Automatic annotation (TrEMBL):
This is EamA family transporter. It is a multi-pass membrane protein. The lineage of its organism: Bacteria, Pseudomonadati, Bacteroidota, Cytophagia, Cytophagales. It comes from Hymenobacter persicinus. Residues 144-274 form the EamA domain. It is found in: Membrane.
Length: 290
């Protein structure tokens, strides 16, 4: 799929639009939860995203080699598990909090194995952020929702690591389009067996299509375009703004309000993420997960 210069968006605005698109999609998803639940919503998002990306990218599946299948299949499975766990978390806790906790996964991956003193600062900031979020009195925050968000973050770290291997053997657009097919495998069984499935109507199906566009197709296209003219370091620093964008989206679109202490915690984790990226030797882009 070739990008048309006529409709090209400058790199930095493209990344910011991608972030806003993803968080708008998350708000749509959360609006569907009361009727469809997270399983059916995730199935709609991933299934329709896979179909749309196959149409747009048109990968030649018959020409893929065995070594390419060996990396793209686990990459897709990690992508599906990540999205499903995030939606399950989002059904229980505010959007900004869910994205902040999910960010711990790629941040831990970025800092893993580092022995530099500067990285200790980012670890301390991230740990302080998590400590401020944690409900030490056991009230006010859904513990299961927090655990699901952290699990989604762990899958995000795996997704990034597998993405590096996949990018070495497949073009980015083909990798995501094919990976999205396999992302549906761990999700669809939950969606198809959900008691909420009979509630699906043409109107809700249309909202599911919008969810797929805003959460996957549009941000994926904008990110791929931006990465052609932007360094991975700059891209990853901009992506560190995502928890803030999520909190603002939750506030403006869903009426979710975070306590002041959680805003402080979120900003500490954002600073840790941006700092780790800025000082990393070879930063890797953490593409959108949720």
């Amino acid at each position: 799929m070739k990008d048309s210069p006529r409709y090209s968006v400058p790199a930095v605005p493209a990344v910011l639009l991608a972030i806003l698109s993803v968080q708008g999609g998350a708000a749509i998803a959360k609006g569907l939860f009361p009727v469809l639940g997270p399983a059916v919503t995730a199935s709609l998002r991933i299934g329709l995203s896979a179909l749309l990306l196959l149409v747009l990218v048109r990968p030649r599946l018959g020409q893929l080699q065995a070594r390419q299948w060996r990396v793209v299949v686990p990459y897709g499975l990690a992508l599906g598990a990540m999205n499903f766990l995030f939606y399950c978390a989002l059904a229980r806790i505010p959007l900004g909090l869910a994205v902040t906790l999910e960010f711990v996964g790629p941040l831990a991956l970025a800092l893993a194995g580092s022995r530099r003193w500067v990285d200790v600062v980012w670890v301390v900031l991230a740990a302080a952020g998590i400590a401020l979020i944690a409900p030490w009195q056991g009230r006010g925050i859904d513990l299961l929702g927090m655990a699901l968000a952290l699990a989604a973050g762990g899958c995000w770290a795996i997704y990034i690591a597998l993405g590096q291997r996949t990018a070495a053997v497949l073009p980015g657009s083909v990798a995501v389009a094919v990976g999205m097919l396999f992302a549906a495998l761990p999700v669809l069984p939950f969606g198809l067996t959900s008691s909420s499935l009979p509630a699906l109507t043409p109107h809700l199906l249309l909202l599911g299509a919008l969810l797929a566009v805003f959460s996957s197709v549009l941000p994926f296209t904008l990110e791929m375009q931006a990465l052609k003219s932007m360094s991975t370091r700059t891209f990853s620093i901009l992506m560190s703004l995502e928890p803030v964008a999520a909190a603002l989206s939750g506030w403006l679109l869903l009426g979710e309000k975070l306590p002041f202490i959680q805003w402080v915690a979120m900003l500490l984790i954002v600073i840790a993420s941006a700092g780790a990226t800025l000082t990393a030797r070879q930063p890797q882009p953490a593409l959108h997960s949720e």
